[in-house]
Design goal:
The structure is a homodimer. Chain A is mostly helical. Chain A folds into 2 domains: about 60 residues, Arc Repressor Mutant, subunit A (Orthogonal Bundle), CATH 1.10.10.10; about 35 residues, no CATH class. In chain A, strands 1-3-2 form a 3-stranded antiparallel beta sheet. In chain A, strand 2 and strand 3 form a beta hairpin. The interface between A and B is large, with 39 and 39 residues. The structure holds a DNA duplex. Chains A, B: This is DNA-binding transcriptional regulator YhcF, GntR family. Chains A, B: Keywords: DNA-binding, Transcription, Transcription regulation.
Chain lengths: ~130, ~130
DNA sequence: TAACTGTTATACTATATATATAACAGTTAT
DNA sequence: ATAACTGTTATATATATAGTATAACAGTTA
């Protein structure tokens, strides 16, 4: 687990935590079935509060990224991450839309934009992957 | 001006306002030189507070989308919107990165993702455009 | 028994969002 | 000149979110 929290960031700590765990999964650094630290352990390691970690874990659980067993602890969903449904695709479009509009106004072309997205996809890997 | 505010949205009102004005420019519905309502006028029309409008205007001004003359009122930047610099491109990448990672985990392919971006670009127009 | 697990509850601080007034200085139209 | 505008600034208040600090509960594991 390589988590880096920036206390000066505009993003809340629990959001940074969520994003970095998702990024670890996307980069195949963490795989389905792998365990995550307990809320107390991770909070202590990062020097933050247990509730902040718990909030991130709860949201990851709700999105199906992790399972939380009272006994076995926290585990990346062994069944794999649930596939995007129509609702997720709509929310993705809602988030992307203002980014595209602003970029367009600032002269960023469709080509440059999609090339950037491709570059970001390229930084992820599915080698020996789970999907 | 077709502004629609959703008080139930997770996005703050001033952000919704900002995004919709930027979207209007991107769709070529509003062009450089066009005037915008005064803070009091727009606030009254939308049924919100003058300071909320002012906050949106100040941020749009800081990004170069609009100019605010004490006398002439508020105008979409007649020189056109400033082109994206390296700093903007970096911030765009920082915002896009977690979206790509999450989408990837949920099985959205690079192709589907870029196709969505292309669709959003396609909804904008540069006919008779200013850039 | 002791040390851990997730979970829940309460309380407190700080910041962000939004509103409500009020006032100031400068235009513009009557 | 007066009245009606303009953006701007200041102050105050209410609410929600973010983060922390403790404490406790029920269950597991060594």
């Amino acid at each position: 687990m390589f988590i880096n929290i920036d206390l000066q960031s505009d993003d809340p700590i629990y959001t940074q935590l969520k994003n970095q765990i998702i990024a670890s999964i996307a980069r195949n650094e963490m795989r389905p079935g792998d365990g995550l630290p307990s809320v107390r352990r991770l909070a202590a390691d990062l020097g933050i509060n247990l509730h902040t970690v718990n909030k991130a874990y709860q949201q990851l659980k709700q999105q199906g990224f992790i399972l939380i067993h009272r006994q076995k602890g926290v585990v990346i969903n062994p069944e794999g991450i649930p596939a995007a449904d129509e609702q997720y695709r709509e929310s993705l479009e809602r988030v992307l839309s203002p980014l595209v509009a602003e970029s367009f106004c600032k002269g960023i072309t469709e080509k440059e934009f999609t090339t950037l997205c491709q570059k970001l996809f390229g930084q992820l890997t599915n080698e020996g992957g789970w999907r």
